[in-house]
Amino acid sequence: MGAFESARPHASRGSSCGLKLRVVALGHRMPAWVSAGWTDYARRMPHEFTLELIELKPESREGGKPVARLLAAEATRIASACRGALVVALDERGQPWTTRRLADTLARWRDESRDVAFVIGSADGLADSLKRDAHAVVALSAMTLPHGLVRVLVAEQLYRAVSLLSGHPYHRG
């Protein structure tokens, strides 16, 4: 089985130029409200930004495998899904970014023609090697958040940052 066979991409409108944003998330069978929230924000993205969700099935927690081994196996599949993109690992111990910083960083990456992958780990988080090798490790909150909510929150913040760049009034709300 190849690295992408467990992945299910969900993309917004495509673009031949601009910034490709990928959210790579471990987890599947999310509640309907997660899909609805994601789809709503992905649909709103302007055509110069492509927003794609890649879902990866987490490693089975059955069988007593050590957490480090589970995370290492997940990290291998995450790396495949992120190939060619700058990686932003989402972790509660990462740096807190403001929406303005996210917008400014997205503008720079857009100008540099860089693809970006935001990574949401499994129930045990992300492998230390993945966080070490990431371009940035960012905290959405100091609190632990449900993974489905993180998907929606990331989509919303990406949309808000893009709105800020374009001067759209959504950012002020």
Give the gist of this structure.
The chain has five helices and six strands.
What does this entry look like structurally?
With 173 residues, this protein is of the alpha/beta class. The chain has a single domain, classed as Alpha/beta knot, CATH 3.40.1280.10. The chain has 5 helices and 6 strands; from the N terminus they run E-E-H-E-H-E-H-E-H-E-H. The chain has a 6-stranded mixed beta sheet with strand order 1-3-2-5-4-6. Helix 1 (32-44) links the parallel strand 2 and strand 3. Helix 1 (32-44) runs parallel beside helix 5 (147-166) and helix 3 (99-111) packs across helix 5. The radius of gyration is 16 Å and the shape is globular. 34% of the residues are buried.
Descriptors for this entry?
Alpha/beta knot; 6-stranded mixed β-sheet; 173 residues; 5 helices
Indicate the topology.
Elements: E1 8-11, E2 19-26, H1 32-44, E3 49-56, H2 67-81, E4 85-96, H3 99-111, E5 115-120, H4 128-133, E6 136-139, H5 147-166
Helix pairs in contact: 1-5, 3-5
Helix fraction by DSSP (H/I, runs of at least 4): 25-40%
- Tell me the Rg in angstroms: 16 Å
Strand content: 15-25%
Largest sheet: 6 strands, mixed
Q: Which class of secondary structure composition applies to the elements?
A: alpha/beta
The order of strands across the largest sheet is: 1-3-2-5-4-6
Integer count of domains = 1
Shape field: globular
Specify the oligomeric state. single chain
Secondary-structure element series: EEHEHEHEHEH
- The CATH topology corresponds to Alpha/beta knot
> Judging by the overall fold, what is the CATH architecture?
3-Layer(aba) Sandwich
